[in-house]
Amino acid sequence: MKFLLGVDGGGTKTIVSIANEFGEITGLSKTDSVDILNVPPEEVKNKIKKAIDESLSQAKIKIEDISFSCFGMSTFGDVPGTERKIEMMVEEILPKSMVVNDVRVALEGALPKSPGMILLAGTGSMAMAKDKEERIFRVDGWGEYVGDLGSGYFIGRMILQRSFEEYDGRREESSLLKMVKDFANVSDLREILTRCKGFNVRTYIASFSKIACLAATNGIYSASDVISIAVEELKRSVKALLNKLDFEPVPLAYAGGLFNCEYFKNEFMSVMKKVQGIEMVEPEFPPYIGSLLMAAKNILSQSEFLSFYNGLHKNDKELLTI
Questions:
Q1: Tell me, what's a Pfam family for it (predicted)?
Q2: H helices within 94-220, ranges in order?
């Protein structure tokens, strides 16, 4: 029996999964961020190993039983020099493996059998596409300092900025200020600043995107305006990526934590439906399944892969909506 292991390692959460050659998911575990630029490398390694051990235990197999694995890792390919560091870490954990960017596995999960594009909007943001020759193109995903436009971090930072503007009297005070303080569990807004240093700051700031969602849903203009600005930035990424492709219409799927917010998702869908040259589609599988599909493609024959693909659809629906 062949077993595949996949890692969907994002900027906020990470999913480790195991499936047999028939597409049956036998192990599934979660941990938090494995972003090597924001979390100490040794901590990243330990988190992944612990999650793998948990999945192996569920699958009732040993690590030696894994035929091949695919690691979709946040920041991989984003910054020159980090690729080899991540590859070396992965090789120490599982030698029979491949490493790609986490958005690449999201793209494979969303559109496993056709060319197209995915817009990932979570802690960070990136648009990625594959054409009919499976060439890969991308826009953004360049991190919180110079990119990730329209991301959870982008929204969270703007919400904090507007809260401090209300605190200073630069902006008319609204209930947003109290919502931010309550969410951060502080009595003085300035206490938030002490959390904005050191590791995991990116995730912390991105968490305030939840307040943007709640406030916008409750009709607070300063929050709904932030979401509108973010969606416009994501639209610009999609249009820039469209210019790199030579076929239309381009199927556009989406993934990432921001889409858990109905307000954000509705705004996004409304704006994207007006963009010429794209066709909005639902992701066929969640991102973590993409890592299993990419692992399977590397070792299974064409007929075996088809059996694997069909088997994935037979898993419990709850497993396919994580």
A1: BcrAD_BadFG
A2: 102-110, 152-168, 175-184, 201-206, 209-217
